[in-house]
Specification:
Chains A, B: InterPro entries: Homeodomain-like_sf (IPR009057), HTH-type_TetR-like_transc_reg (IPR050109), HTH_TetR (IPR001647), KstR2_TetR_C (IPR041490), Tet_transcr_reg_TetR-rel_C_sf (IPR036271). Chains A, B: Pfam families: TetR_C_24, TetR_N. Chains A, B: It comes from Litorivita pollutaquae. The structure is a homodimer. By secondary structure, chain A is mainly alpha-helical. Chain A has a single domain, classed as Tetracycline Repressor, domain 2 (Orthogonal Bundle), CATH 1.10.357.10. Chain A is globular. Chain A has eleven helices and no strands. In chain A, helix 2 crosses helix 7, helix 5 runs antiparallel to helix 6 and helix 8 packs across helix 9. At the A-B interface, helix 9, helix 10 and helix 11 of A face helix 9, helix 10 and helix 11 of B.
């Protein structure tokens, strides 16, 4: 057994710490989504994780840090969706399908849901600007796809790119408001249904 | 000129008072929607109406009364939509069209938008219960129409009634979040586009 292999037997302390911090972030944001940021205390979080509040302070300084980190990760996930679409050479309809699928799967997670459930006035200016830019980027990609789809004869001419994008993101952003509780609808079911329904609504 | 006609020349004091009170409610709720309930003062409202704060007190006691009255009127409007649909004998697809059209036109008004822009914790228990019941009623009507439309062969069998309704109301409830500013998209355009897109997405 080489030196490298010996060290790989267990994860490094740093890797373990990262995973535990991520558990704090994800459980924190789940509680914020369920009960609201103001109504959630670090005591609630400690109880939910089965650890002491003192242990939490080893990973984060305060509630705000949890929310900020959750929003940062969530915006990055949307940026990755936009990046993937921009660097792909799909047809217009396929592009719209890819965005609906990826966005539905993300918004159905706790980190995804915090993007719509966090009140506007809880966002720092920096996060607000970044979130708006990322949403606008995805909105532009759908509009562009609709326009190109009409030109290519794939999409009906009566489809308004702006209103089509608004309907799609409205339906998707509304998911965290109704898909709660102990047995939420799987993201894949939501994605399949929304893709089918919106794409059939667009096709010539 | 008869006595009755003489009195009809000008509106009664009571009718004038009702109209002025309604102007206070509608302007108030517009400001709440634009700037948030907490950030809107009765001074802002007086300024916006070009009257004194003292005059406002002749019509309402406080900000809370404005919001409560706006929500009451808005819920009643949704109840009327549900009532109309329940007492009509349209086909499944026509029923869905009627709901999309009426809901789009209502949600695009200031009174309609306050239903989604007012934060949950601003609602009294009574209003919360009533609003939820009315929304559930409309949701049930769409689901029922989808189920019946599938049975009648009008709607594709792959349409899930629950997810179809969620997509429609998501798209509609999202309208107040993007359709702001000085030149909002007319409600009729939103309604036409959403009807076309959702109905084509449903049809066999």
């Amino acid at each position: 057994m080489s030196n490298d292999q010996w060290h790989d037997v267990v994860e490094s302390r740093e890797a373990q710490r990262r995973k535990k911090r991520q558990a704090v972030i994800e459980t924190g944001v789940r509680l914020f989504n369920e009960n609201g940021f103001e109504k959630t205390s670090l005591d609630d979080l400690a109880k939910s994780l089965g650890i002491t509040k003192r242990t939490i302070y080893y990973y984060v300084q305060c509630k705000d840090e949890i929310l900020a980190e959750a929003l940062r990760q969530s915006i990055q996930a949307l940026e990755r969706i936009a990046w993937t679409v921009e660097n792909d050479t799909c047809s217009a309809v396929d592009t719209i399908e890819v965005i609906i699928d990826a966005y539905a799967r993300w918004i159905a997670t706790d980190l995804g849901a915090c993007l719509v459930l966090t009140r506007e006035n809880m966002l720092t200016d920096e996060v607000r600007v970044e979130l708006r830019a990322t949403k606008q980027q995805l909105d532009r990609l759908i509009r562009k796809a609709v326009t190109e789809g009409i030109e290519a004869g794939e999409i009906r001419e009566t489809c308004d790119p702006r209103l089509t994008s608004a309907a799609i993101f409205g339906a998707l952003n509304w998911v965290p408001y109704w898909n709660r509780g102990s047995t939420p609808t799987p993201a894949s079911d939501i994605s399949d249904q929304f893709k089918r329904s919106f794409i059939q609504g667009l096709r010539r």
